[in-house]
Structures are given as structure tokens and as C-alpha cells.
Design a protein that fits this description.
This protein has 135 residues and is α/β, with parallel strands linked by helices. The chain has 4 helices and 5 strands. A 5-stranded mixed β-sheet has the order 3-2-4-1-5. A hairpin with a 5-residue loop joins strand 2 and strand 3. It is globular, with a radius of gyration of 14 Å.
């Protein structure tokens, strides 16, 4: 286990799974099956908006090659559509993490911003951040 010094960005992902009630535990099992140490994200937000813990925040995530050492990873359950509950709690979680780690809005990104071969989380993260977050 490697430890994050101080995260300076928040990266938003989606599980790329259909709405069927998946949880952080399901993602943990999928990632273990891939040979990883366990779930690669710090937080998972399921369809009813429940924010579930994944890796502890101090543990370097496994989610975006080249950006793991300095980021917090959040995953929404779903592919192309997400519930209002998910978006409400995503906004609250991001705001809390921004305050905790002094991260600016410009450093809240989608996985697609870090890897041109990705579309995840399949919505415009910048638009979300600048229209839904306080400050």
C-alpha cells in the first residue's frame, strides 16, 4: 500500500455498468478479479445516492494511469445516465473534498480529461462543477 501525500485533484468516474444495484463491494470484487489490491476508487455513489467508502483517502487509488499519486477518485454507478440523488451527493462530496484538501474547481476532472481514450464518466464534469457547486 502506498500513501498519498496531498491530493491536488478529484477525478470523477462511472462504473460503466447498467443500473442493477451495484455497490462498492461489487466494484471491489471486479477489481480483485483483475488482480488489483481491491477497489481502485475512494468513493462510490450508488443509484439511490448513497456514498460508499472504497479505499481510504490516504491510500493511493488505482483509477487513472499517471494521476493516481495525487488524486481522489469518485465513481458513480451507471453508464450514461445517473440519478438526481447521485448528482446531489456528488456535489456535496466534491465540495467537502475541495475544502478538506484545498482543491480548486479547475482540478475537478472527468477520467476522460486525463486519458483521451476514455469517455468516463460520460457527462460534462466541468459544466457540472461550475453549475452545481458553491463558490
Amino acid at each position: 500500500m502506498s500513501v498519498i501525500n496531498k491530493p491536488n485533484k478529484i477525478v470523477i468516474h462511472c462504473s460503466d455498468s447498467p443500473h442493477r444495484g451495484d455497490t462498492a463491494e461489487d466494484i471491489h470484487l471486479w477489481h480483485k478479479q483483475r488482480g488489483w489490491d481491491g477497489i481502485g476508487y475512494h468513493y462510490v455513489i450508488n443509484e439511490d445516492g448513497l456514498v460508499e467508502a472504497g479505499r481510504p483517502e490516504y491510500w493511493i487509488p488505482a483509477h487513472a494511469k499517471g494521476h493516481n499519486e495525487n488524486s481522489i477518485a469518485i465513481c458513480l454507478i451507471g453508464i450514461n445516465s445517473f440519478t438526481e440523488y447521485q448528482f446531489e451527493n456528488l456535489a456535496l462530496l466534491i465540495e467537502n473534498l475541495m475544502l478538506k484538501y484545498n482543491i480548486s474547481k479547475k482540478n475537478v476532472v472527468g477520467h476522460y480529461d486525463l486519458d483521451e481514450n476514455k469517455t468516463c464518466p460520460n457527462f460534462n464534469v466541468k459544466e457540472f462543477v461550475y453549475t452545481r457547486l458553491e463558490g
